[in-house]
Amino acid sequence: ALGHRRVLHLAADIASWTFEVRARELAARLAEVPGTQLRTARAPISMEDAVAAAGAALGAPGPRPTAIVCDDDKLAAGAYKAVRRLGLRVPDDISVTGLDDLALATAIDPELTTVRLDAELFGERGMAALLAVLEGRTPEGGDIPVQLVVRGSTAPPPG
Length: 159
Prior knowledge:
Layout: E1 6-12, H1 17-31, E2 37-43, H2 47-58, E3 67-70, H3 73-85, E4 95-100, H4 104-107, E5 113-117, H5 119-134, E6 146-149
Parallel strand pairs: 1-2, 1-3, 3-4, 4-5
Antiparallel strand pairs: 5-6
């Protein structure tokens, strides 16, 4: 909605269906917007790996992304460092988003725009599914509600 058309997905380098679904849905939604380019860089969920992956992706040839969508708030914090090391600013030059709404999201400056996921409910549903499988039952389905928490890390792309 802010107008970004060059997006970097800083993806968690973890074999998990949840991260696969996130990547697939992000690509599908961006494909619906004419003129959008999506690059993907993968990193384990650690600060050092996120800094390295984001830095390499932002320094690659071609037009620089104006937004970084991160699979996790920790990856987003690493993206902040990479952006700053390149002499750029969040969100003036590059917008950054995360996922989870960890305490870290309000500890960094500017505060991180992120998707709040109810970790307790996520754990409850996971345990219920595991118990159902162990008891030979089919786990119940259903979505877990999420909320976009808009903070200072996002803005329209630079003119």
